[in-house]
Design goal:
Order of helices and strands: EHEHEHEHEHHEHEHEHHHHH
Number of domains: 1
Strand content: 5-15%
Helix content: 40-55%
Radius of gyration: 18 Å
CATH superfamily: Aldolase class I
Structural class: alpha/beta
Distance between the termini: 32 Å
Strand order of the largest sheet: 1-2-3-4-5-6-7-8
Largest sheet: 8 strands, parallel, barrel
Number of strands: 8
CATH class: Alpha Beta
Length: about 290
């Protein structure tokens, strides 16, 4: 199966003037690779891709590919709620050094399941790399059902995985049960990665791994080896930190953590804002206790 193990949905760090901080981006990529992640996803939700210009997106993707330098695979996020525009964006993207395409379900216009199928078929038909579906109804306003995911998995040869962030374990189990043999189910939520791995998933595309790649990689690696006691030990050691990281949303929490660790500035682009001082102080205290 493709895209097995610990993936990281990498942030887009900004300088204080809110321009992209490419030096910080390179630091975070190297930090993640040193922490043994298996692949990096650039221009996802955590990367604040909807606030980046087309030029910034291209530059950020090239920066990640060049910094990774073949040490890990790179996946690029390309999505939207206008199928024609998404198809056009895929056609005009430089896929050199990129191993996969992650594309979220269209947001806001809330298509029916038939519309989701046709949307993904159109995107997959022009993608030069394997496609990962991304179901995140909490952000997009529409849930892609197990039946829809399975239809695409069985009918479209280059749709090879789904990042599932619905929070519906029963739905995820149905996909795992009836998927093709080469189709990966990937957790899209750090808090449920361990139980989903126990149900038969192949890994995670993690937010937390931006700051704590070694810990996330340990949870996933031990789970893949069916060593759940070791995975649980790491998961529970991070439980309070996980709660704090997502208390005021993503990527606000993880950017605060990266700032505590000295990897990037605590800067986001509006309409997102940094976490409150209370949450920042809590994160700082928890990170110090971890002795990272």
């Amino acid at each position: 199966m493709l895209f097995t193990g610990a993936g990281v949905a990498i942030v887009t760090p900004f300088k204080n003037d809110r321009t992209v901080d490419f030096d910080a981006l390179r630091r975070i990529v190297n930090h993640c690779i040193d922490g043994k992640v298996d692949y990096i996803v650039v221009l996802g939700t955590t990367g604040e891709s909807v606030t980046l210009s087309a030029g910034e997106k291209a530059d950020a993707a090239r920066c990640v590919v060049d910094t990774a330098a073949g040490r890990v695979q790179v996946v690029i996020g390309i999505g939207g709620n206008d199928t024609a525009q998404v198809v056009d964006a895929v056609k005009h993207t430089n896929f050199g050094g990129i191993s996969g395409l992650l594309s979220a379900t269209p947001s806001y216009n809330k298509p029916a399941q038939a519309g989701l199928i046709e949307h993904y078929k159109a995107v997959a038909s022009v993608s030069p790399v394997p496609v990962i579906l991304y179901n995140v109804p909490g952000r997009t306003g529409v849930n892609m059902t197990a039946e829809t995911t399975l239809t695409l998995a069985h009918e479209v040869h280059n749709i090879v995985a789904v990042k599932e962030a619905s929070g519906m374990l029963a739905q995820m189990m149905r996909i795992i049960k009836d998927r093709p043999g080469n189709f990966s189910v990937i957790s899209g939520d750090d808090t449920v990665s361990l139980p989903l791995m126990a149900l038969g998933a192949q890994g995670v595309i993690s937010v937390v791994a931006n700051a704590f790649p070694r810990e996330v990689s340990t949870i996933i690696r031990e789970s893949l080896a069916s060593n759940y006691a070791a995975a649980q030990a790491t998961q529970y050691a991070m439980l309070d930190l996980l709660d704090a990281l997502f208390a005021e949303g993503n990527p606000s929490g993880i950017k605060a953590a990266l700032h505590v660790l000295g990897l990037s500035q605590n800067v986001l682009r509006l309409p997102l804002t940094p976490v409150s001082q209370k949450t920042y102080d809590q994160l700082e205290s928890l990170i110090k206790k971890m002795k990272v």
